[in-house]
Design a protein that fits this description.
By secondary structure, the chain is mostly beta strands. The protein is built from no helices and 11 strands.
């Protein structure tokens, strides 16, 4: 079955950096666009970044600060986060996605447990 295991979260001060990892199994990783979402307390889950074979997409709130990458040999997707802000505090999740006409994203698999990122001084 599909497994998505996120790791790398933690407590970091504003302006700091973290690198998240997501190990995927149970599907042909290299065939799908991969994404990172986040959900802050009391808010809906939102798309942070997505990566296909050759392109990336970022939410406006993280452009220039976050970088998504993937290693198809390791079935792993990464999210490098820099210049972190308190508003980046959330549980971060990864998932495979389909990119639909019009540019919307359709999540393909059940969510994993996520990894908590807390940005606070």
């Amino acid at each position: 079955q599909v497994q998505l295991v996120e790791s790398g979260g933690g407590l970091v001060q504003p302006g700091g950096s973290l690198r998240l990892s997501c190990a995927a199994s149970g599907f042909t990783f290299s065939s799908y666009a991969m994404s990172w979402y986040r959900q802050a307390p009391g808010k809906e889950r939102e798309l942070v970044a997505a990566i296909t074979g050759g392109s990336t997409h970022y939410a406006d709130s993280v452009k220039g600060r976050f970088t998504i990458s993937r290693d198809n040999a390791k079935n792993t997707v990464y999210l490098q986060m820099t210049v972190l802000k308190p508003e980046d505090t959330a549980v971060y999740y990864c998932n495979a996605v389909l990119i639909l006409r019009g540019g919307s994203f359709h999540v393909l698999h059940p969510w994993g447990q996520g990894t908590q990122v807390t940005v606070s001084s």
